[in-house]
From TrEMBL:
It comes from the Bacteria. The lineage of its organism: Bacteria, Pseudomonadati, Pseudomonadota, Alphaproteobacteria, Rhodospirillales. This is Uncharacterized protein.
Length: 141
């Protein structure tokens, strides 16, 4: 008598990878309900997968009222953005921590162009603080 096996498609990184580096390869195929692959598993290069998956998505940065910045996928569901937040908690951070990491001397070369960029940052931060003070009803700092 023939046995019926229910298969479901799978798509995942080939093996556990460092999330800071990403997978060396993705694998797609079919597996049974216990997770055992059946038939041919197809290896896929990361650049092709990532370009296809991410190519049609626009990302933006959103900020909560407490100054926490997070990356969001525009035009995607709340569930998709929650999945991004869970998968990449490092994809969000407090505004002061982001500024602090930007000013890390190891990465900061204080040439004339960088100095101008820092002047622009100072101007934007002052403007942002004035906007917050306006909402809170406090005088400009």
């Amino acid at each position: 008598m023939a046995e019926t096996v229910r298969l479901k498609p799978f798509f995942r990184p080939e093996r556990d990878t460092d999330p800071r580096v990403g997978p060396e390869r993705y694998v797609a195929g079919f597996e049974d309900m216990t997770g055992v692959p059946w038939g041919v598993s197809v290896p896929l290069a990361p650049h092709a997968v990532e370009a296809t998956v991410l190519g049609g998505i626009a990302f933006s940065v959103a900020m909560a009222a407490d100054g926490t910045l997070r990356v969001e996928a525009d035009g995607r569901s709340d569930a998709a953005n929650e999945a991004i937040a869970v998968a990449r908690p490092a994809g969000q951070g407090a505004i002061d921590c982001v500024v602090e990491s930007t000013l890390d001397p190891v990465f900061l070369d204080l040439d004339p162009e960088t100095r101008q960029e820092l002047e622009t940052l100072r101007h934007r931060l002052r403007r942002a603080l004035a906007l917050v003070d306006g909402v809170l009803g406090e005088p400009d700092s």
